[in-house]
Amino acid sequence: MARLPRLTLPGYPHHVIQRGNNRQPIVADDDDRRLLLDLFLSASREHDVAVHAYVLMDNHFHLLATPEGGRGLAAMMQAVGRSYVRYFNQRTQRTGTLWEGRYRSTLVQADAYLLACMAYLDLNPVRAGLVAAPADYAWSSHRHYAGRTQDRLVTPHPLFWSLGNTPFAREQAYTELVAAGVAKEVEQLLTDATLRGWAVGDAGFLKTLEREAPRRPTPRKPGRPKGI
C-alpha cells in the first residue's frame, strides 16, 4: 500500500516526531543538542514556522509547531535534517542514514489538545526516567514556560497567553497543568495519530479538515464503501 502524503495545513499546530534509525542516538553530547536547537531556530525563522514546544531526547525529538505556509514545516525539517546529519556524521565518523525514515507529523486541534500536547512533550524525560520533574531537564521548552529561562526558539501559542493576565499567572497555571499530568489515553492518541498521520481533534474539527485538507484526515471505516 502506498504511504499517505503528510497531512499539513498552514495555520494549524502540528505535532512532529523524528526518531533515530534503529532507535540509535541522534546526539552524542550537549554540543550536539545546542547545535540542533540552533539549526531549528534559524530554519524556523527562514521558513516562517512558529515552534511552540519541543523536547530533545537521546534518540528522538518532538516538536509542536505551526507553519505559516503550506511548505514551511517540510522545508524547515529538510533544512535541519540535511545540515545536522552532515555535521553529526562528520563529527562521529559515521556514514549512512541517521533518521528512521521520514519525520512523522499531524495536525492537532488547538483548543482541545494543544496544551495537553505541550505537557506530553514536557513529561517525556520524566516518563523515560531521566529526571524527577520536567524543570530538571534542560533540553525541552518547559523551563521557558515555567519562567526559568528565555528560549529564543519558542513562540508561545495564543492559548498559552490565555492562561493568565500576567507572566507569573501564566507560568504558574502552566506549571500546574503539567504537574497534573496527561491521561494515558491522550498520550497514546497523540503518539499513534502522529505516527500514522491522522489528525487529532473532535468531530467538528475533523469535519472542517475534510473540507480543507488535501487528503482525508482520519482512517476509513472498516468494510466495503457504500454503494459497492
UniProtKB/TrEMBL annotation:
Residues 217-228 have a biased composition (Basic residues). GO terms for molecular function: DNA binding; transposase activity. Residues 9-124 form the Transposase IS200-like domain. One of its GO terms (biological process) is DNA transposition. The lineage of its organism: Bacteria, Pseudomonadati, Pseudomonadota, Betaproteobacteria, Burkholderiales. NCBIfam families: REP_Tyr_transpos. Pfam families: Y1_Tnp (PF01797). Residues 209-228 are annotated as: Disordered. InterPro entries: Transposase_17, Transposase_17_sf. This is Transposase.
